[in-house]
Amino acid sequence: QKEVEQDPGPLSVPEGAIVSLNCTYSNSAFQYFMWYRQYSRKGPELLMYTYSSGNKEDGRFTAQVDKSSKYISLFIRDSQPSDSATYLCAMSANSNYQLIWGAGTKLIIKP
Amino acid sequence: DAGVIQSPRHEVTEMGQEVTLRCKPISGHDYLFWYRQTMMRGLELLIYFNNNVPIDDSGMPEDRFSAKMPNASFSTLKIQPSEPRDSAVYFCASRTQQELGGYTFGSGTRLTVV
Question: What is the mean pLDDT of residues B87-107?
């Protein structure tokens, strides 16, 4: 079993819909949780960064961490075609522990 | 800052040839990472450096792969000899000591070994 599980998709939704992307993990020591967005033929770019449990909001994006369930989510409101990309979750136990990456979910927003 | 700069963007080479990938990290970043990305295996960490010193190279597939960081502004990843199964996109990323999650990735080098 992988340490981090993420459905590769693709996930296709109409423009304007609310998107929910998720990752599950097995290591209860993880405390730092990240979401990266990767456009085709580009490197990943950091989208959201949260520590421990709770929610964090940034514009149309909300990151949610549920440590009791070992489950993290990224919500995108009012989705746009420009949100079409692959979304990767990543997590770590501490500052000296390297990131463990999910496989990435390909998201397609249809105009 | 121009971000993390990788070269070349694309490389096509014949099996058995030596390949050298280059990376210039963001100035002031303490950590440098080399990743490989494929459809089958996703993002794989190959090696990382802290203040130019290699810390963990356990992800390097085999002895055909080597990486160096002679100074804070330059790193290379070399494959010798190259094989078709090395075909992938190779990313370099850097970050500061403090920003654990704040990796900045380059645009990658798409390597094709024929």
Answer: 91
